[in-house]
Amino acid sequence: MVTCHIKYVIDPYKIKEFEHYVTLWVPLIEKFGGQHHGCFLPSEGASNIAMVLFSFQSLTHYDDYRQKSFEDIGCRAAFKYADDTRCIISHERSFFRPVFK
To answer: What is the structure's pLDDT at 64?
Structure first.
């Protein structure tokens, strides 16, 4: 299993737009075989940092999802929504593997 962690720098005045954007991705991640673990919006501390976690069976499965996402109509609509609302300033993507011992 591989878990993708995305750290977003968001426009703090567009949290509602960003929240809508990430809710669009939950069924899309699952459609491609991933498991979405949720989005974590600012609460205390920094007002412009959000995090998202989701997992795939392997990095190969994640790469397959990424390739297909650029052609999928739902994914393209989600990308367009983010572009139109400009709720995301930047993001960093990291990958982790779980340890269950």
So the answer is: 96
Beta strands in the chain (DSSP E): 2-10, 35-40, 49-56, 88-96
Give the separation between CA 26 and CA 10, rounded to whole angstroms: 18
In degrees and rounded to multiples of 5, residue 45 shows phi and psi of 90, -140
d(CA 88, CA 101): 36
Q: What is the pLDDT of residues 55-98, one digit of tens each?
A: 999 999 999 999 999 999 999 999 999 999 999 999 999 999 98
Look up the pTM and report it: 0.90
Q: For domain 2-96, give the CATH number.
A: 3.30.70.100
Domain ranges of the chain: 2-96
| 85, two tokens | 């609302």
